[in-house]
Amino acid sequence: MNDVKPLRSITRELIGRIGKADLLVGIPCFNNAATVAHVVAAAARGLREHFPGSKSAIIIADGGSTLDDTRELALAEMKAQGVPGVVGIYRGLPGKGSAVRMIFAAAGELEAKAVALLDSDLRSVTPLWVERLLGPVVKDGYEFVAPLYRRYKFDGTITNNVTYNMLRCLYGKRVRQPIGGEFAFSGRLVGELEALPIWDTDVARFGIDIWLTVNALIREVPMCQTHLGVKVHDAKDPAASLEPMFRQVVGTLFALMEETDGYWTRAGRSEAVAAWGVPGDEEPEAFPIDFQRLVEHFYFSWQTLRGAWESTLKPETYAELEACVDAGRGVFQIGTDLWARILFEFAAAYHQRPAAKKQIIEVLSPLYFARVASFIRRVGDRTNAEAEAVVEEQARIFEIRKPYLLELWNAKPGGTATTAP
User: Fold this and answer.
1) Where are the alpha helices (DSSP H) in 182-230?
2) What fold does the segment set 9-276 form as a domain?
3) DSSP category for residue 354
4) What is the pLDDT of residues 40-54, one digit of tens each?
5) 185 with 226: CB under 8 angstroms?
6) Which one of 92, 164, 178, 421 is most buried, counting C-beta atoms within 10 A?
């Protein structure tokens, strides 16, 4: 276990000068000079306009930005807004999780009753987001608040193709954006999570968002989702930049499946999660995505990794995947049912082959690219609303297939499982 303290002594001293705060907004950041001042300004205005009777503060948890002036710009904006706050560099592994740990530790020092997280690359954040995140905690007693966005159909590819489907299937709650980035918590839940010994794992990197959501789910705390409108941030083309994030998110997901299998193996069909606020009608902006690069990445990987895939997947599943490849690039398509079985079989392999966990995650990522390309092919000519209906259809298929996952999970290593009808 890592015994690195989350707060530097100077950071703790600066927090001590604030005293106490009822509400805290934490902003993890790293080289976000282009957007961080805008996020700080929105947070400050949201606290001032929507919670005028509460003592509030902002914490900037920086990863040691050296390529730009992220910290200096954040501090200048806090001073301009006249809001109490601290800008500090977190300790621990590099990644958002370590930043969140610093924010949670600061919340403990401040004895905050409610804490909100805002990503620092947001371009669409408004003061209303602060009210929509903290309001359910302060006004209605919710302890965990997840975001609801209006997103471009090709944004959130890990969410749309992996985490929403898997968490809905596993834990029985329809949390639409389980790795969305913007969350809110009760002070009680923050203290409980900050004390857990997980901060020297991939949770400290990109695994933090799914870890936060799963821990709220298994604790069965009062939770809701909150309408934030359109999310515009620094868009990431999955073909170019999402592989490390995919590996850390899915690695955390599979590890959580092992840690919580006493819960999710008993969970039934999914239930809706309450929504707070009024949804907007603004449409998100489109952005380019390199579809052909995704396809070529997969076909290149087929030449070197198909042996690993054949040894991980069940014979029927591998044969179906091979048939997709043989069909050719022009019509290549991994359907939802096949994709669900691929994910389930990789999760079971992760569970049953403890010495090969890292390799299993690494060889799964090219299959994720292939699935994203398949999703793009299917919804390319559809509206965002129509693409959202496809996502919901996918999630229902994952739920229907859960008995197959349970069969795989409970099979002895080297045993067999049959494809569910």
Assistant:
1) 187-194, 208-219
2) Spore Coat Polysaccharide Biosynthesis Protein SpsA; Chain A (3.90.550)
3) G
4) 999 999 999 999 999
5) no
6) 178
